[in-house]
Amino acid sequence: MSSINFDQVTKIYPDGTHVIDGLDLDVGDGELLVLVGPSGCGKSTVLRMLAGLEESSGGEIRIGGQVVNHLPPQRRNLSMVFQNYALYPHLTVRGNLEFPLEMKGLSRTEIDRRVRETAAMLDLDAFLDRRPKALSGGQRQRVAMGRAIAREADAFLMDEPLSNLDARLRVQIRTEIAALQSRLGVTTIYVTHDQVEAMTLGQRVAVMRGGKLQQVAPPWEIYQRPANSFVAGFIGTPGMNLVRARLDSSDGAPCVLSGDYRQALSVETLAHQPGLADRTGEELLVGIRPEAIGLAEAGATNALTATVRTAESLGHETLLHLDSSLTTVAADAPRQAPHGEPPALIAALRGHHPSRPGDAVHLQLDPGDLYFFTLDGEAIR
Ligand code: ADP
After folding, report:
1. Percent of the chain residues past pLDDT 90, beyond the cut
2. 44 lines ligand 1 (CB under 6 A)
3. Mean of the pLDDT values across residues 138-165?
4. Dist. CA 13 → ligand 1 center (Å)
5. Which band of pLDDT confidence, cut at 50, 70 and 90, is reported for residue 272?
6. Residue 332's domain spans which residues?
Protein backbone atom coordinates (compact mmCIF):
# COMPACT_ATOMS: atom_id res chain seq x y z
CA MET A 1 0.00 0.00 0.00
CA SER A 2 1.30 3.41 -0.93
CA SER A 3 0.54 7.03 -1.41
CA ILE A 4 1.01 8.47 -4.89
CA ASN A 5 2.17 11.99 -5.68
CA PHE A 6 2.44 13.98 -8.87
CA ASP A 7 4.52 17.10 -8.47
CA GLN A 8 4.41 19.58 -11.38
CA VAL A 9 4.28 16.70 -13.85
CA THR A 10 4.13 17.63 -17.54
CA LYS A 11 3.93 15.67 -20.74
CA ILE A 12 4.90 17.06 -24.11
CA TYR A 13 4.85 14.61 -27.01
CA PRO A 14 7.74 14.70 -29.51
CA ASP A 15 5.48 16.49 -32.02
CA GLY A 16 5.21 19.36 -29.51
CA THR A 17 1.71 18.57 -28.21
CA HIS A 18 1.36 19.70 -24.59
CA VAL A 19 -0.86 17.02 -23.09
CA ILE A 20 -0.35 17.45 -19.34
CA ASP A 21 0.41 20.79 -17.83
CA GLY A 22 1.98 21.07 -14.35
CA LEU A 23 -0.05 18.33 -12.67
CA ASP A 24 -0.07 18.44 -8.85
CA LEU A 25 -2.05 15.57 -7.38
CA ASP A 26 -1.72 13.61 -4.14
CA VAL A 27 -3.50 10.31 -3.63
CA GLY A 28 -3.57 9.04 -0.05
CA ASP A 29 -2.54 5.57 1.06
CA GLY A 30 -5.56 3.31 0.55
CA GLU A 31 -7.60 5.99 -1.19
CA LEU A 32 -9.80 5.46 -4.27
CA LEU A 33 -9.40 8.53 -6.46
CA VAL A 34 -11.33 8.86 -9.71
CA LEU A 35 -9.78 10.88 -12.51
CA VAL A 36 -12.58 12.08 -14.76
CA GLY A 37 -12.82 14.34 -17.79
CA PRO A 38 -13.86 14.37 -21.42
CA SER A 39 -12.18 12.09 -23.91
CA GLY A 40 -8.72 13.35 -24.89
CA CYS A 41 -8.13 15.47 -21.75
CA GLY A 42 -5.07 13.42 -20.76
CA LYS A 43 -6.37 10.93 -18.19
CA SER A 44 -4.74 7.86 -19.73
CA THR A 45 -1.49 9.74 -20.20
CA VAL A 46 -1.42 10.45 -16.44
CA LEU A 47 -1.96 6.77 -15.67
CA ARG A 48 0.58 5.63 -18.24
CA MET A 49 3.23 7.98 -16.83
CA LEU A 50 2.54 6.63 -13.37
CA ALA A 51 2.84 3.05 -14.62
CA GLY A 52 6.07 3.88 -16.45
CA LEU A 53 4.62 3.11 -19.89
CA GLU A 54 5.12 6.72 -20.92
CA GLU A 55 7.97 8.99 -19.88
CA SER A 56 7.09 12.30 -18.26
CA SER A 57 8.62 15.46 -19.71
CA GLY A 58 9.02 17.21 -16.38
CA GLY A 59 8.17 17.08 -12.68
CA GLU A 60 8.31 14.26 -10.19
CA ILE A 61 6.18 11.15 -9.67
CA ARG A 62 6.42 9.38 -6.31
CA ILE A 63 5.00 6.07 -5.13
CA GLY A 64 5.17 5.46 -1.39
CA GLY A 65 7.45 8.49 -1.12
CA GLN A 66 9.98 7.08 -3.62
CA VAL A 67 10.66 8.97 -6.87
CA VAL A 68 9.89 6.56 -9.69
CA ASN A 69 10.46 8.71 -12.80
CA HIS A 70 13.35 6.56 -13.94
CA LEU A 71 12.15 3.16 -12.73
CA PRO A 72 11.01 0.68 -15.39
CA PRO A 73 7.34 -0.42 -15.18
CA GLN A 74 8.11 -3.81 -13.61
CA ARG A 75 9.87 -2.15 -10.67
CA ARG A 76 6.93 0.11 -9.81
CA ASN A 77 4.81 -2.74 -8.39
CA LEU A 78 1.50 -1.45 -9.76
CA SER A 79 -1.40 -3.46 -11.19
CA MET A 80 -3.25 -2.13 -14.20
CA VAL A 81 -6.76 -3.02 -15.35
CA PHE A 82 -7.64 -1.80 -18.84
CA GLN A 83 -10.79 -1.42 -20.86
CA ASN A 84 -9.83 -4.38 -23.05
CA TYR A 85 -9.07 -6.90 -20.37
CA ALA A 86 -6.04 -8.25 -22.21
CA LEU A 87 -6.62 -11.80 -20.98
CA TYR A 88 -4.55 -14.54 -22.63
CA PRO A 89 -7.10 -16.37 -24.81
CA HIS A 90 -5.20 -19.67 -24.85
CA LEU A 91 -4.91 -19.82 -21.05
CA THR A 92 -7.65 -20.84 -18.64
CA VAL A 93 -8.82 -18.46 -15.94
CA ARG A 94 -6.42 -20.18 -13.55
CA GLY A 95 -3.63 -19.78 -16.10
CA ASN A 96 -4.44 -16.11 -16.52
CA LEU A 97 -4.27 -15.55 -12.78
CA GLU A 98 -1.09 -17.60 -12.40
CA PHE A 99 0.94 -16.23 -15.31
CA PRO A 100 1.96 -12.84 -13.84
CA LEU A 101 2.80 -14.55 -10.55
CA GLU A 102 5.01 -17.08 -12.30
CA MET A 103 6.73 -14.21 -14.11
CA LYS A 104 7.51 -12.74 -10.70
CA GLY A 105 9.16 -16.03 -9.77
CA LEU A 106 6.88 -16.80 -6.82
CA SER A 107 6.87 -20.30 -5.32
CA ARG A 108 4.18 -22.81 -6.29
CA THR A 109 2.70 -22.71 -2.78
CA GLU A 110 2.47 -18.91 -2.84
CA ILE A 111 0.92 -18.90 -6.33
CA ASP A 112 -1.68 -21.49 -5.25
CA ARG A 113 -2.55 -19.46 -2.16
CA ARG A 114 -3.03 -16.23 -4.08
CA VAL A 115 -5.09 -17.84 -6.85
CA ARG A 116 -7.28 -19.61 -4.26
CA GLU A 117 -7.89 -16.43 -2.27
CA THR A 118 -8.52 -14.28 -5.32
CA ALA A 119 -10.93 -16.77 -6.89
CA ALA A 120 -12.88 -17.00 -3.63
CA MET A 121 -13.02 -13.22 -3.30
CA LEU A 122 -14.37 -12.74 -6.81
CA ASP A 123 -16.56 -15.85 -7.07
CA LEU A 124 -14.41 -17.28 -9.82
CA ASP A 125 -13.98 -20.81 -8.38
CA ALA A 126 -16.44 -22.35 -10.80
CA PHE A 127 -14.69 -20.87 -13.84
CA LEU A 128 -11.04 -21.61 -13.08
CA ASP A 129 -10.73 -24.20 -15.84
CA ARG A 130 -12.54 -22.21 -18.52
CA ARG A 131 -10.94 -20.18 -21.28
CA PRO A 132 -11.86 -16.47 -21.56
CA LYS A 133 -14.03 -17.04 -24.64
CA ALA A 134 -16.34 -19.23 -22.56
CA LEU A 135 -16.98 -16.39 -20.09
CA SER A 136 -19.46 -13.51 -20.13
CA GLY A 137 -18.20 -9.93 -20.34
CA GLY A 138 -18.73 -9.45 -16.62
CA GLN A 139 -16.84 -12.65 -15.76
CA ARG A 140 -13.92 -11.63 -17.99
CA GLN A 141 -13.83 -8.29 -16.28
CA ARG A 142 -13.65 -10.07 -12.93
CA VAL A 143 -10.75 -12.21 -14.10
CA ALA A 144 -8.91 -9.03 -15.13
CA MET A 145 -9.60 -7.61 -11.67
CA GLY A 146 -8.49 -10.91 -10.14
CA ARG A 147 -5.21 -10.80 -12.00
CA ALA A 148 -4.57 -7.33 -10.60
CA ILE A 149 -5.50 -8.40 -7.07
CA ALA A 150 -3.42 -11.58 -7.10
CA ARG A 151 -0.29 -9.56 -7.81
CA GLU A 152 -0.69 -7.89 -4.40
CA ALA A 153 0.64 -4.68 -5.86
CA ASP A 154 1.12 -1.36 -4.08
CA ALA A 155 -1.65 0.29 -6.10
CA PHE A 156 -4.31 -0.42 -8.71
CA LEU A 157 -4.53 1.69 -11.84
CA MET A 158 -7.80 1.25 -13.69
CA ASP A 159 -8.36 2.77 -17.11
CA GLU A 160 -12.05 2.76 -18.07
CA PRO A 161 -12.33 -0.87 -16.91
CA LEU A 162 -16.11 -1.04 -17.36
CA SER A 163 -16.48 0.55 -20.80
CA ASN A 164 -17.07 -2.74 -22.60
CA LEU A 165 -19.93 -3.83 -20.35
CA ASP A 166 -23.62 -3.14 -20.79
CA ALA A 167 -25.19 -0.47 -18.61
CA ARG A 168 -26.70 -2.79 -16.01
CA LEU A 169 -23.54 -4.79 -15.55
CA ARG A 170 -21.53 -1.60 -15.29
CA VAL A 171 -23.57 -0.53 -12.30
CA GLN A 172 -23.22 -3.94 -10.65
CA ILE A 173 -19.47 -4.23 -11.16
CA ARG A 174 -18.95 -0.61 -10.18
CA THR A 175 -20.46 -1.48 -6.79
CA GLU A 176 -18.31 -4.61 -6.55
CA ILE A 177 -15.15 -2.64 -7.30
CA ALA A 178 -15.99 -0.07 -4.62
CA ALA A 179 -16.62 -2.80 -2.03
CA LEU A 180 -13.50 -4.73 -2.99
CA GLN A 181 -11.31 -1.67 -2.95
CA SER A 182 -12.46 -0.67 0.49
CA ARG A 183 -11.96 -4.23 1.75
CA LEU A 184 -8.45 -4.51 0.33
CA GLY A 185 -7.57 -0.91 1.18
CA VAL A 186 -5.27 -0.66 -1.84
CA THR A 187 -4.53 2.82 -3.23
CA THR A 188 -6.44 3.05 -6.49
CA ILE A 189 -6.60 5.54 -9.34
CA TYR A 190 -9.61 4.94 -11.53
CA VAL A 191 -9.91 6.73 -14.88
CA THR A 192 -13.25 7.32 -16.57
CA HIS A 193 -14.99 9.82 -18.83
CA ASP A 194 -18.29 8.95 -17.14
CA GLN A 195 -19.19 11.47 -14.46
CA VAL A 196 -21.79 9.18 -12.86
CA GLU A 197 -19.14 6.51 -12.39
CA ALA A 198 -16.83 9.14 -10.91
CA MET A 199 -19.42 10.45 -8.48
CA THR A 200 -20.56 7.02 -7.28
CA LEU A 201 -17.15 5.40 -7.03
CA GLY A 202 -14.66 8.02 -5.95
CA GLN A 203 -13.77 8.88 -2.38
CA ARG A 204 -12.38 11.94 -4.10
CA VAL A 205 -12.87 13.00 -7.68
CA ALA A 206 -10.27 14.82 -9.78
CA VAL A 207 -11.80 16.61 -12.76
CA MET A 208 -9.49 17.26 -15.71
CA ARG A 209 -9.88 19.31 -18.83
CA GLY A 210 -7.37 19.87 -21.62
CA GLY A 211 -4.48 18.49 -19.57
CA LYS A 212 -5.22 20.70 -16.56
CA LEU A 213 -6.69 19.69 -13.24
CA GLN A 214 -9.85 21.68 -12.56
CA GLN A 215 -10.84 20.52 -9.08
CA VAL A 216 -10.07 17.69 -6.64
CA ALA A 217 -12.64 17.08 -3.92
CA PRO A 218 -15.13 14.56 -2.51
CA PRO A 219 -18.09 13.96 -4.87
CA TRP A 220 -20.60 16.02 -2.87
CA GLU A 221 -18.24 18.98 -2.83
CA ILE A 222 -17.67 18.77 -6.59
CA TYR A 223 -21.45 18.85 -6.98
CA GLN A 224 -22.18 21.53 -4.40
CA ARG A 225 -19.17 23.77 -4.83
CA PRO A 226 -17.91 23.39 -8.40
CA ALA A 227 -14.71 25.42 -8.86
CA ASN A 228 -15.78 26.67 -12.25
CA SER A 229 -18.50 26.51 -14.86
CA PHE A 230 -16.83 23.65 -16.72
CA VAL A 231 -17.01 21.40 -13.63
CA ALA A 232 -20.57 22.60 -12.98
CA GLY A 233 -21.64 21.66 -16.49
CA PHE A 234 -19.72 18.38 -16.55
CA ILE A 235 -21.01 16.96 -13.26
CA GLY A 236 -24.69 16.15 -12.86
CA THR A 237 -27.17 14.44 -15.17
CA PRO A 238 -27.88 16.69 -16.95
CA GLY A 239 -25.24 19.23 -15.94
CA MET A 240 -25.90 22.70 -14.61
CA ASN A 241 -27.58 25.34 -16.81
CA LEU A 242 -25.58 28.54 -17.18
CA VAL A 243 -27.24 31.85 -17.75
CA ARG A 244 -25.67 35.24 -18.42
CA ALA A 245 -27.21 37.78 -16.04
CA ARG A 246 -26.69 41.10 -14.33
CA LEU A 247 -26.64 41.57 -10.60
CA ASP A 248 -28.93 44.43 -9.68
CA SER A 249 -30.08 46.07 -6.48
CA SER A 250 -31.43 49.35 -7.82
CA ASP A 251 -34.67 49.01 -5.88
CA GLY A 252 -32.90 47.88 -2.71
CA ALA A 253 -33.59 44.14 -3.08
CA PRO A 254 -30.68 42.26 -4.68
CA CYS A 255 -31.69 40.24 -7.72
CA VAL A 256 -30.32 38.86 -10.96
CA LEU A 257 -31.73 39.94 -14.31
CA SER A 258 -31.54 37.93 -17.51
CA GLY A 259 -33.70 38.67 -20.54
CA ASP A 260 -36.99 39.86 -19.09
CA TYR A 261 -36.67 37.59 -16.06
CA ARG A 262 -35.88 38.83 -12.60
CA GLN A 263 -34.92 36.54 -9.73
CA ALA A 264 -34.72 37.92 -6.21
CA LEU A 265 -31.80 36.58 -4.18
CA SER A 266 -32.44 35.06 -0.79
CA VAL A 267 -30.77 36.31 2.38
CA GLU A 268 -29.09 32.87 2.70
CA THR A 269 -27.65 33.14 -0.79
CA LEU A 270 -26.13 36.50 -0.04
CA ALA A 271 -24.83 35.29 3.33
CA HIS A 272 -23.21 32.23 1.70
CA GLN A 273 -21.67 34.20 -1.15
CA PRO A 274 -20.21 37.30 0.47
CA GLY A 275 -18.29 38.00 -2.77
CA LEU A 276 -21.56 38.68 -4.58
CA ALA A 277 -22.45 41.96 -2.92
CA ASP A 278 -19.34 43.62 -4.40
CA ARG A 279 -20.47 42.79 -7.89
CA THR A 280 -23.67 44.78 -8.03
CA GLY A 281 -24.18 46.13 -11.52
CA GLU A 282 -21.81 43.55 -13.04
CA GLU A 283 -22.55 40.87 -15.54
CA LEU A 284 -21.94 37.35 -14.30
CA LEU A 285 -23.02 33.76 -14.87
CA VAL A 286 -25.77 32.21 -12.82
CA GLY A 287 -25.74 28.41 -12.56
CA ILE A 288 -29.08 26.68 -12.22
CA ARG A 289 -29.25 22.94 -11.68
CA PRO A 290 -32.01 21.31 -13.77
CA GLU A 291 -33.46 19.90 -10.56
CA ALA A 292 -33.70 23.41 -9.06
CA ILE A 293 -36.33 24.36 -11.65
CA GLY A 294 -39.95 23.50 -10.90
CA LEU A 295 -43.36 24.31 -12.31
CA ALA A 296 -44.66 27.61 -10.95
CA GLU A 297 -47.63 27.42 -8.65
CA ALA A 298 -50.89 28.78 -10.05
CA GLY A 299 -51.03 32.55 -9.73
CA ALA A 300 -47.34 32.85 -8.86
CA THR A 301 -45.97 36.27 -9.63
CA ASN A 302 -42.67 36.43 -11.46
CA ALA A 303 -42.87 32.98 -13.04
CA LEU A 304 -40.43 32.26 -15.89
CA THR A 305 -42.31 31.58 -19.09
CA ALA A 306 -40.63 29.09 -21.41
CA THR A 307 -41.43 27.10 -24.53
CA VAL A 308 -40.73 23.38 -24.79
CA ARG A 309 -38.12 22.43 -27.41
CA THR A 310 -38.21 18.75 -26.59
CA ALA A 311 -39.40 16.65 -23.66
CA GLU A 312 -37.84 13.38 -22.46
CA SER A 313 -39.84 11.29 -20.04
CA LEU A 314 -37.66 8.93 -18.00
CA GLY A 315 -40.48 7.65 -15.79
CA HIS A 316 -39.25 9.03 -12.46
CA GLU A 317 -38.58 12.43 -14.01
CA THR A 318 -39.21 14.45 -17.14
CA LEU A 319 -36.45 16.48 -18.75
CA LEU A 320 -37.77 19.55 -20.51
CA HIS A 321 -35.43 21.27 -22.96
CA LEU A 322 -36.67 24.84 -23.08
CA ASP A 323 -36.36 28.18 -24.82
CA SER A 324 -36.88 31.23 -22.65
CA SER A 325 -35.78 34.83 -22.40
CA LEU A 326 -32.81 33.73 -20.24
CA THR A 327 -29.47 34.09 -22.03
CA THR A 328 -28.11 30.55 -21.79
CA VAL A 329 -24.43 29.89 -22.52
CA ALA A 330 -22.28 26.75 -22.88
CA ALA A 331 -20.67 25.67 -19.60
CA ASP A 332 -17.34 24.82 -21.26
CA ALA A 333 -17.10 28.09 -23.24
CA PRO A 334 -19.25 30.69 -21.46
CA ARG A 335 -17.71 33.66 -23.28
CA GLN A 336 -18.18 32.20 -26.73
CA ALA A 337 -21.21 33.20 -28.77
CA PRO A 338 -23.10 30.01 -29.58
CA HIS A 339 -23.03 28.71 -33.15
CA GLY A 340 -26.69 28.59 -34.11
CA GLU A 341 -29.20 28.02 -31.35
CA PRO A 342 -28.17 28.86 -27.76
CA PRO A 343 -28.11 25.87 -25.40
CA ALA A 344 -31.57 24.86 -24.16
CA LEU A 345 -32.47 25.56 -20.55
CA ILE A 346 -33.03 22.11 -19.05
CA ALA A 347 -35.52 21.49 -16.28
CA ALA A 348 -35.74 18.12 -14.51
CA LEU A 349 -39.27 17.77 -13.18
CA ARG A 350 -40.21 14.94 -10.86
CA GLY A 351 -42.60 12.40 -12.33
CA HIS A 352 -44.30 12.44 -15.70
CA HIS A 353 -45.24 15.72 -17.37
CA PRO A 354 -46.89 15.28 -20.71
CA SER A 355 -45.40 18.10 -22.80
CA ARG A 356 -44.98 18.61 -26.49
CA PRO A 357 -42.68 20.83 -28.51
CA GLY A 358 -44.16 24.33 -28.61
CA ASP A 359 -46.06 24.04 -25.30
CA ALA A 360 -45.70 27.00 -22.95
CA VAL A 361 -44.71 26.26 -19.35
CA HIS A 362 -44.41 28.52 -16.32
CA LEU A 363 -41.48 27.81 -14.09
CA GLN A 364 -39.93 28.94 -10.87
CA LEU A 365 -36.33 28.65 -9.74
CA ASP A 366 -35.27 27.68 -6.25
CA PRO A 367 -33.59 30.92 -5.08
CA GLY A 368 -31.56 29.00 -2.49
CA ASP A 369 -30.05 26.77 -5.17
CA LEU A 370 -28.29 29.21 -7.48
CA TYR A 371 -24.56 29.25 -8.26
CA PHE A 372 -22.52 32.24 -9.34
CA PHE A 373 -19.52 32.49 -11.65
CA THR A 374 -17.57 35.28 -13.31
CA LEU A 375 -18.06 35.62 -17.06
CA ASP A 376 -14.86 33.57 -17.46
CA GLY A 377 -16.47 30.78 -15.48
CA GLU A 378 -14.60 31.04 -12.15
CA ALA A 379 -16.81 30.37 -9.13
CA ILE A 380 -17.59 33.45 -7.02
CA ARG A 381 -17.25 32.42 -3.39
P1 ADP B 1 -7.91 10.56 -22.35
O2 ADP B 1 -7.40 9.34 -21.65
O3 ADP B 1 -8.35 11.62 -21.41
O4 ADP B 1 -8.96 10.27 -23.38
P5 ADP B 1 -5.26 10.61 -23.50
O6 ADP B 1 -4.37 10.71 -22.31
O7 ADP B 1 -5.40 9.28 -24.14
O8 ADP B 1 -6.69 11.22 -23.15
O9 ADP B 1 -4.74 11.64 -24.61
C10 ADP B 1 -4.54 12.98 -24.32
C11 ADP B 1 -4.12 13.74 -25.55
O12 ADP B 1 -2.83 13.33 -25.95
C13 ADP B 1 -5.03 13.51 -26.74
O14 ADP B 1 -5.30 14.76 -27.32
C15 ADP B 1 -4.21 12.65 -27.65
O16 ADP B 1 -4.51 12.93 -29.00
C17 ADP B 1 -2.80 13.08 -27.33
N18 ADP B 1 -1.80 12.01 -27.58
C19 ADP B 1 -1.82 10.75 -27.10
N20 ADP B 1 -0.73 10.06 -27.52
C21 ADP B 1 -0.03 10.90 -28.31
C22 ADP B 1 1.22 10.81 -29.06
N23 ADP B 1 1.92 9.66 -29.05
N24 ADP B 1 1.63 11.89 -29.74
C25 ADP B 1 0.93 13.05 -29.73
N26 ADP B 1 -0.22 13.23 -29.04
C27 ADP B 1 -0.70 12.17 -28.35
Report:
1. 71
2. yes
3. 89
4. 9
5. confident
6. 241-373
| Contact in structure between 85 and 163 (CB atoms under 8 Å) | no
Whole-angstrom CA distances from 80 to 47, 111, 245 are 9, 19, 47
Q: Is the CB of 41 under 6 A from ligand 1?
A: yes
Q: Whose CA is nearest to atom 14 of ligand 1?
A: 40
Give me ligand 1 centre to Cα 45, in Å. Answer: 7
- Cα 39 to averaged position of ligand 1 atoms, centre (Å): 9
**Distance of CA 108 to CAs 98, 99, 113, Å?**
10, 12, 9
Residue that terminates a domain, selected from 205, 234, 263:
234
Q: What is the CATH number of the domain that holds 175?
A: 3.40.50.300
**Region 184-198 average pLDDT:** 94
- Per residue in 157-176, pLDDT (tens digit) is 999 988 888 888 888 888 88
Please enumerate in sequence order all residues whose Cβ is within 8 A of that of 78, keeping only pairs 6 or more positions apart, or say none.
Answer: 50, 51, 63, 153, 154, 155, 156, 157
> What average pLDDT score do residues 315-330 get?
95
Ligand 1 center to residue 43 CA distance, Å? 9
For residue 41, which atom of ligand 1 is closest to its CA? 3
Q: How confident is the model at residue 1 (pLDDT cuts 50, 70, 90)?
A: low
* Domain final position from 219, 234, 249: 234
Looking at the fold, whether 178 and 257 belong to one and the same domain comes out as no
For atom 7 of ligand 1, which residue has the closest CA? 44
55 CA distance to ligand 1 middle (Å): 13
What's the whole-number mean pLDDT along residues 61-85? 90
Whether residue 98 is predicted with pLDDT greater than 80 in this model: the reply is yes
Is the bond preceding residue 343 a cis peptide, omega within 30 degrees? no
